[in-house]
Write a structure and sequence with these properties.
26 strands; about 15% helix; SH3 type barrels; Fumarylacetoacetate hydrolase, domain 2
Length: about 400
């Protein structure tokens, strides 16, 4: 893992180091939506770079960067997208870089607007943290047999709603639906009373497949462009009433929030770690070689209106029992096709320690424990005007690669 340097001013402990260079969609001033790369506190305008000829010879037309989404760029394939990132890395690390004297290629992040980075074609949410699944099983089923019989044999998942995925900073309207108040037996139509966050990560598909094709664990990474932070907002009371027998529906589909910067799989390469020893052994199509878990520190804070935020969770993406290549192999084992822009979320990421529980459901243990905010108020679930902030970064040997944050405010 080489330690590069850059002539661009990058604050200490910045998520957006020269080792990262995540892609996103921004607008600023008279510039309409286009593709940019984050470096320090700035955004490098890739369309402006393309106009100057810096991507000549790579096989990417400049119009690719004059775009509302990253889909067209991702669809060019790993050889091209990796070459673009490496060219940017070279230009930002070369002390004699022609970018030093170029005008109009940088924008301040503080003065730019970030947009949804991808047009999400389809969205799948997995349930791949053994600690989270065990906690839920203990609360609602059997403390001695918390996991359902299939859980250790396949990555459980469900097809989610792509149209309600929103970018960080979008307000989240408290959903309404059918709920059964405590002590009652019949449902009423009312606003959700048990609103929750779920700390997740999601990866984006770049390389599509045809209907009937399958993707092996060995080839899965060829289809994965990168990752975002993912808050899968959940209406627990709506979910509890509706989920039997077909699983999540209105309790999940009202909103999911993602971070605006997509961190590439290449940037996360140095932070791979060994995953869980899976017992019982998995079927052959789910077996894999190498390190497929990634050591990414995650945290969640709640910020009541007018009150400093309070960190309520510290977890890690390495806690996943089912990893990304297994999730993708299972997703396609029946011949389900992939499209560029498909999003696969991890499911709630919880650790063994209470402080690493990735949802209010677990942190409050189904509402039986109170979390105290910095103004002395307490929470068991989210209240109106609460802002949930999720952050994530990987760090090793002085190298930091981060995601920034995903935030959303609960409104009536």
């Amino acid at each position: 893992m080489s330690n590069l340097s850059t002539w661009v001013s990058v604050p200490a402990n910045s998520d957006f180091s020269i080792h990262n260079l995540p892609f996103g969609i921004f607008s600023a001033g008279r510039k309409k939506t286009r593709v940019g790369v984050a470096i320090g506190t700035q955004i490098l305008d890739l369309y402006a770079l393309a106009e100057l000829g810096h991507f000549d010879g790579i096989g990417v037309a400049k119009k690719i960067f004059d775009n509302d989404y990253l889909n067209d760029f991702m669809a060019l394939g790993k050889p091209v997208t990796k070459a673009v990132r490496e060219r940017v890395q070279q230009l930002l690390s070369d002390e004699n870089s022609p970018l030093k004297n170029a005008a109009g290629i940088f924008e301040k992040q503080s003065e730019a607007t970030m947009h949804l980075p991808v047009k999400v074609r389809d969205y799948t949410d997995f349930y791949s943290s053994i600690e989270h699944a065990t906690n839920v099983g203990k609360m609602f089923r059997d403390p001695e047999n918390a996991l359902l019989p299939n859980w250790k044999h396949l990555p459980v998942g469900y097809h989610g709603r792509a149209s309600s995925i929103v970018v960080s900073g979008t307000d989240i309207r408290r959903p309404k639906g059918q709920i059964v108040p405590k002590g009652e037996t019949q449902p009423i139509h009312a606003p959700c009373r048990l609103l929750d966050f779920e700390l997740e990560m999601a990866f984006l598909i770049s390389k599509p497949t045809s209907l009937g094709d399958t993707v092996s664990t060995a080839d899965a990474e060829d289809h994965i462009f990168g990752f975002v932070l993912f808050n899968d907002w959940s209406a627990r009371d709506i979910q509890k009433w509706e989920y039997i027998p077909l699983g999540p529906f209105l309790g999940k589909s009202f909103a999911s929030s993602i971070s605006p910067w997509v961190v590439t799989l290449e940037a996360l390469e140095p932070f791979r770690v060994e995953g869980y020893k899976q017992d019982p052994p998995v079927l052959p199509y789910l077996q894999y070689e190498g390190f497929k878990n990634i050591d990414i520190h995650l945290e969640v804070a709640i910020e009541p209106e007018g009150v400093p935020e309070k960190t309520v969770c510290r977890s890690n993406y390495k806690y996943m029992y089912w990893n990304m290549v297994q999730q993708l192999a299972h997703h396609t084992v029946n011949g389900c096709n992939l499209n560029t822009g498909d999003m696969m979320a991890s499911g709630t990421i919880s650790g063994k320690d209470e402080s690493a529980f990735g949802s209010m459901l677990e942190l409050s243990w189904a509402g039986t424990k109170k979390l105290t905010m910095n103004d002395g108020s307490t929470r068991v679930f989210l209240q109106d005007n609460d802002t949930v902030i999720m952050r994530g970064h990987a760090e090793k040997n002085g190298i930091r690669v981060g995601f920034g944050e995903v935030r959303g405010k609960v409104v009536k």
